[in-house]
# Entry
Amino acid sequence: MRHHSGCCASATGQAGASKRAGTEGPAIGLAGPVSQTIVEYAARTRHQVHGDLVERHARELHSRASYDCWNGLSDRDQELWRHMARLDLTTGRS
# Structure
């Protein structure tokens, strides 16, 4: 496992902020049918689940499946985890 002090922990040991914090618009551009589905589903379910809940659940799903650092993931990879979290939260699976 690689050292994560530069990407996810400060000198105080607190987790770093997401690269997408405070940004608007999709991390995945509309380049094809899969990305279009992800962006449309995010827009459709925005009123059903709060963004913070989606973010927390995405991080939880990622931590269960990988030892990689969340902040080390690309914006596209993080958005894929958010999409899986939205699916999980809106279809009743937890």
